[in-house]
Amino acid sequence: MADMTDHxxxxxxxxxxxxxxxxxxxxxRGLQRMVDEDKYCIDILTQVSAMTSALxxxxxxxxxxxxxxxxxxxxxxxxxxxxxxxAEASAAIARLVRS
Amino acid sequence: MADMTDHxxxxxxxxxxxxxxxxxxxxxRGLQRMVDEDKYCIDILTQVSAMTSALxxxxxxxxxxxxxxxxxxxxxxxxxxxxxxxAEASAAIARLVRS
Amino acid sequence: MADMTDHxxxxxxxxxxxxxxxxxxxxxRGLQRMVDEDKYCIDILTQVSAMTSALxxxxxxxxxxxxxxxxxxxxxxxxxxxxxxxAEASAAIARLVRS
Amino acid sequence: MADMTDHxxxxxxxxxxxxxxxxxxxxxRGLQRMVDEDKYCIDILTQVSAMTSALxxxxxxxxxxxxxxxxxxxxxxxxxxxxxxxAEASAAIARLVRS
Lengths: 99, 99, 99, 99
What we know:
Four copies of one chain form a homotetramer. Chain A has 99 residues and is mostly helical. Chain A contains four helices and no strands. The longest helix of chain A has 37 residues, at 41-77. The first copy, chain A, is elongated, with a radius of gyration of 18 Å. Chains in contact: A-B, A-D, B-C, C-D.
């Protein structure tokens, strides 16, 4: 499974994730501008909710790729590494659900 | 209530919110770097969860200030504007809870 | 504000809330039946998500009524009680957003 | 993989899940009693948050068992069923994160 170490699960969609994260960075800058210009609280909150959804969507995409590549790879290989990958994935899912 | 129009509810904590949003913008850049450098999916997801929590925390702060200033101001003044402010606040809370 | 003490904010929609909570109780029983009958995990998870949404919806309704009645009443009266009601409402919102 | 069809992923922890779901059913009944007795909105909301957390915890447990058993089993077997199981799991995770 040398392949697994060299390329992360999201490799094929790397450009897509980078593009989405750049847009999220832009949303963070837009929020600063809104606060700086004393925009109405509710309008800022609407943008925060949009940014949270965009971030959640990136997380779900990364997790999906992770399950498809790393977890499946480890499951096919079996052994203690498979167990560790599953425990890691479950912990990451729990953090997402609770955050 | 000219005051309410000129200064948003978060006015007193504006610098604090700007500082937190700059840090969130930095987290978005850090995530791009991690993806670009092929970091491990689970480590990226951990950072996404941290960023989501930071964003949620900003949202709760803005909402708290909004309730303290705009909603209380409108409630004291009464009339249809009070009702509109409450409906807006409830809708913003629902978006946060569901996002 | 004796009225505020005698009747909670959700008084006018009490029957509606009771009906929705009975349905949620039924969903909890339905989940036990599914687990008992060894139903497929994913189908159970779909029902859990539906139940969580129903519960969230009750929470948002209760919060909306609370803001309209208790918080507005306290804000109109002013003083330390108003501040306490707002702090309580903000803490309840934070628990909902984070749960 | 006849085993996979006969017993769901949560089989070993079935009694634990049933016990937790019975407690959640009890929380739903407790909420009805609180509403019926005109308890204070904020106290009801605190119980709703506790119930939502308990439900989320059951969901994360079921999902963890599902990944360990069904998804790993399908991944080891490979083929189109593996892909379908992963797509299902990802969709269930997305519903949980967004609910």
